[in-house]
Write the structure tokens for this entry.
Amino acid sequence: MHNQSLLIAQSPPLEGTAELTGAKNAVLVIMASLILTKGKSILSNVPFSSDVRNVMTLLQNLGAEVKYAPDLQTLCVDTSPINDWRVNHEMMKRMRASILVMGPLLARFGQAEIALPGGCVIGSRPIDLHLRNFVKMGVRIIESGDTLSASVTRFNAKKIILDYPSVGATENIMMLATCAPGTTKIINAALEPEVLDLIKVLKKMGAHIQVVAPATIEIEGVKELKPIEHAIINDRLEAGALLLATAITGGNIVLPQAPAFAMDVFLQKLQQMGHKVEVGDNDVGVTLRATKDPKAVSFKTGPHPQFPTDLQAPMMAAQCVADGTSVIEETVFENRLMHVRELQKMGAEVKVIHDQKVVVTGVEQLYGTSVIASDIRASCALMLAGLVAQGTTIMTGVHHWQRGYDALEKKLKILGAQVKMVDGQNFSVQDKRLFFGYESSVKD
Ligand code: EPZ
């Protein structure tokens, strides 16, 4: 996987209808939550991305039996055999979202041992909000080297006040609180759609949870939680990628399952660019008819329901070829502008004001070249730029793409995009044979 590249060539307007897969940022934490139960659970609409495969391995390492049916996109997990509460270093390094098993392991075993998750390019990704509030709930945490050993004997259900509505901290604390006697309140909780999908799952398991305005989650601890069946919420970030691929190429697309109810600010920004956006009944489903003369819009990311940080890079790519100037501010992560350098290599005019704010001035044309993806959403931005850039763009760092999306390049190709995952990284951009048909080493 690390020796592959995503080739993107200038593409015609994308046209058609596309299905969505389940949200990565819901399925990972929901898989972790299964540790709270003993028995067989079934998850459907599960993307087969590398992050999902990593959590499958993590659960198997703890003793669970895990089976995935690719044709049904269904995951069966039997958590009865789980008999370990330690997550090995290699797994934590591979995927920082492994921290999300800490709450469930503490709830099930009264202990957990994990390696400190690494940061990543978008930020140091601290876990202080997780740990500080676990301690407040009665958890003892001993740090030795980069291993954290946590244990809890007596819970004190508490009023947890989050300094920042952290998605992971909200999820971890909530999962532990489902089994803590008494009522735990999480104030200033994250209420992203993926967090709400987790709440749906926990309530199916038998947890007593309610969401109270403003941004408070109340959890009343119960003795036991049961296995469940659940269809993962469709991925608003995959929907955003497909809508932007259509917008940037001036096409038309129908996404019948798009969770429009979770995308209001983003969809409004597309409309402000001049694209025609229609939402289906009950706020499910989106149709987009792109304008050929998009206007640049400004936006600032923030916790839900503000503009999602995970669509910042892809939306920036669309501003690079829109008419006018766009001021973009990233407020969630401290270093999530790594794609700017790569977009500039393609001819984009992006002025960095400071490390969380840029001004984009739309240009007539971008130019294909070799670019490096620094994180999942940067890989999406570079794909989008490649769809309109003259010539061919060769993107490496595709393991990020494969972590966050389930073969999205195949969906894009069906819509008319000139995009292919190919083996190898050292070939000339001009060598179009690789791309236009002599497919000796081109994987479809
Ligand atoms: C989740 O990450 C998502 N990942 C991210 O998606 C998403 O960008 C992020 O939420 C924000 O929506 C998964 O759900 C697996 P946070 P998470 O805790 O939980 C700081 C993608 O591309 N913070 O809400 O790690 C943190 O440094 C990924 O799909 C602390 O300071 O995000 C960041 O600046 C990227 N201390 C801010 O809060 C803590 O203890 C938001 O982080 C925890 C977080």
Q: What stands out?
A: The pocket of EPZ is lined by residues 24-25, 28, 97, 123, 125-130, 164, 166-169, 190, 192, 309-310, 332-333, 376-377, 404 (CB under 6 Å).
